[in-house]
Amino acid sequence: MEKVLHQPILVNEIVKLFSEKGGKKEKFLDATFGRGGHTKKMMQEFPSLRIVALDQDPEAIEYGTKELKEAIAAQKLEIKKSNFADYNNKDGTAFDGILMDLGVSSPQLDTASRGFSLYHEGPLDMRMDPTQGLSAKEIINNWEERDLADLFFHYGEVKKSFRVARFIVDQRKEKPFETTVELAGCIAKALGWKKKGHHPATECFQALRIQVNDEINVAKRGIQNLVQML
Questions:
Q1: Which residues make Cβ contacts (< 8 Å) with residue 70, sequence separation at least 6?
Q2: Do 182 and 120 meet the contact criterion of CB atoms below 8 Å apart?
Q3: How far apart are CA 112 and CA 121, in angstroms?
Q4: Which H or E run includes 185?
């Protein structure tokens, strides 16, 4: 599997917050493992810490299992394939800290085959777990014009969402959308983009990604679920 560089965000701030926590620091949950940047830093700063790491993306699990095999063998780290909203700590162990780094990760954006990026041509997918749910392609090619417009407006704050939806519906009558670049080009045309500055498809892609992965509801369920484990 291709090794993708990834820089974790706010890692020093997270370490500082956890350092200031009173009492023992025995167990930590990284609910969105990604490429393990936060987990690696926490293991460095707190050598006695045992970490459980979750991710729904099979590529993240494969990467972590390979790159952090020594920590896994030493029982300092346990990596589980799970959406954090569905995680169940069956042994009842409470965590001293829980981290959720929400949204798409840079390896997902940079890997064209995942279909998240409007700059790298790939299949219209956008599923964080490729084995689950509707893909972006199914939504773009099958949803009604009004539903697409509402999606872009509410999850992407696209002001001319009806214009974008109409262009998409018209174009898919001739040929269904297959790739990210096809969709990005259609949106750019709908909004009259002159290839300068911010790409107008950015917010539409964001809205699609949120819908495909049910991110709003997952975040709500996840917070309600994980806070019980602190």
A1: none
A2: no
A3: 6
A4: helix 180-190
How far is the C-alpha of 135 from the C-alpha of 128, rounded, in Å?
Answer: 10
Compute the 3-state secondary structure of the chain and give helix, strand, coil in percent, each to the nearest 5: 50, 10, 45
Instruction: Give the whole-angstrom CA distance, residue 119 versus residue 66.
Output: 29
95: DSSP letter: P
Here the tokens at position 209 are: 């990604």
The SS3 assignment for 9 reads coil
Instruction: Give the separation between CA 4 and CA 108, rounded to whole angstroms.
Output: 9
CB 111 within 8 A of CB 101: no
Specify the amino acid at residue 198. H
Cα gap 229→224, rounded to integer Å: 10
**207-227 tens-digit pLDDT:** 999 999 999 999 999 999 999
Alpha-carbon distance 61 to 93, whole Å? 22
The pLDDT tens digits of the residues spanning 34-80 come to 999 999 999 999 999 999 999 999 999 999 999 999 999 999 999 99
What tokens were used for 194?
């002159």
Helix axes 161-174, 145-156, angle to 10 degrees: 140
